[in-house]
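Hello support,

Our group uses your service weekly, and this is the first time we've seen a run hang past the timeout. The protein is 6-phosphogluconate dehydrogenase. I'm not sure whether the cause is the sequence or the server load. Input pasted verbatim:
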Amino acid sequence: MALGFIGLGNLGQAIAKRLTDMSEEIIAFNRTKSKIEDLGYKIANSPKDLIEKCDIVILCLFESDAVENIFNMQEGLLSADLEGKTIIDLTTNHFEQVLNFHKVIDEKGGEYLESPIFGSVAPALEGLVTIVASGKKDTFDSCKTILEKIGKEIFYLKEPGKASKMKLINNLCLGSFMATIAECTALGDACDISRDKLLEILGVGGGQSLVLKAKTQKLLEEDYSPHFSNNAIYKDLHTLQDLAYSLNQPLFTAAVPKELFGKMKKDGKGEEDFCSIVQLFKD
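Update from on-call engineer: The timeout came from a worker crash unrelated to the input. Re-ran successfully.
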């Protein structure tokens, strides 16, 4: 049976392509149908129509409010009979809102697997992202074959909300590393060190990281087309601060990167890749 897919943004398109490359048939839904008409997928008329055609529906949306909309809109997922249906949610959700998603899907007789993606477009196309999942063990086990088609590393944290919290913690590293690499790049430019040599040396020195490996070419080419946007990392770091606040936990190193990415958003560059933060340090 075909897989349902909702959320064909940059990351969603990469994941859907990976699944089709792995011989999965995709039926898609998008609130603006014209945005996905050229992608080559069968298109459902509504989330309800989609889940009636597919036993498994994958969500890959920007934030929890978008997930809630897909659940509760006219002809939304919650208007369907969810008995025997599973929703795999790859969205980076708010750690509190996601708890309600588990609850409402369970009440409707369906299965919900909270499964945020760690990684962006390039690794997603190759099935090299990391996925951390929370939910019922039986649900995780039944979905693992699909998760393994899009992810290289798969982790399971049973308690609802734990996967979303882990994703936010991971993105503290992501945002901090990117801000530091960007500042190092701008400083190297100011010192008249060629950028390719600078990034090569950082790559075997203190800058070694998946972030640098992923962004070296984009920094060299000043290619700011989005794989992971400033808007997305800003949203995630803001949610991370919500998490720290709820725990009465000081969070020192998240504050500055969050505000730097916030400045990019304010400057109208929110849709650029988050490596474009290098422009702030050059300005």
